[in-house]
Structures are given as structure tokens and as C-alpha cells.
Amino acid sequence: MLQRPKYNNSDPDVVEFFGECMNSRKNGRTPLANEIYEQMVAERDREPEGEAKKSPSKIVDESLSQISLSSTFLLNIGVPRPSKTGQSSSTAAQERMQAQFEAALQAEREELQTQQAALEENQNLLRQTQEEVRGMTTRFEETNALLRAVLKLQKD
């Protein structure tokens, strides 16, 4: 990889180098390149729970392979691609994604249960209101019949 004075004549971090390569002085990064770079930085800075920390080259390789399996960025800058035998981090990532999915699914289920309870409550209120209206209609009809009878008596 290139060694530059700004890196104190040592190899730069591959993630930072990716960000620098994708950054144009005139236009900055494209939205896609910026999103990928931000994901790489977040993954690099993340403290793994119970797993080995990923190397910057592994992070770059995994991030770019999501877009294209034939990415040559690492090879072009002289960094060998990490071996694919270390699938434990991939498995851990899959497990993490599965856990996130299950948590989101559980939250959706709880929201659905809350909405169903509210729906049942509203249906009960509707039934009560309908019964009250029926009762009022019956009393109205009875009162109307009594008034007709009174008016008929007064007429006679």
C-alpha cells in the first residue's frame, strides 16, 4: 500500500484510505460512497461483544462485497483480501441481525396486541352505544304513542 508523509510513512488504515479515495476535493463523496464509508467507520469503531475485533481490511472487504462480489479495491491498493475461512465474524453478524430482526418482530407483535385490545374496547363501546340508542328509540316510540293517545282523548 502507498505510504505517505501524512501517514507518518506507515500504512494508512484501509477504512480511512477508502474514505480518502472516494472523496473528491470538488464534489466530496457520492451518497453511496459516503454511506458505505460511514458503515465501515461504525463497524471499525464498534466494540464487539464476545467476538474478535475485525481488521480494517476485513471490514472493507465485507462492506464492498455487499455491493459487488468482484470488488478489486483491496487488491488495487496492494492489500490481500482477508481469508474467507474466518466465517465466525460473518456468523456473529448473522446472529446479530437475527436477534435484531426478532426484537423488531416482537415489538411489532406487542404493537399489534395493543391495537387489537384498543379495537376490542372500541367495539364494546360501539355495542353499548347502539344498545343505548335502541333503548332511547323504544322510549321515544312509547312516549310518542302516549302523546298520540292523550291528543286523541283531548280531541274526543
From TrEMBL:
Name of the protein in its database record: Uncharacterized protein
Lineage, top ranks: Eukaryota, Viridiplantae, Streptophyta, Embryophyta, Tracheophyta
Stretches of the chain forming a coiled coil according to its record: 98-139
Keywords noted in UniProt: Coiled coil
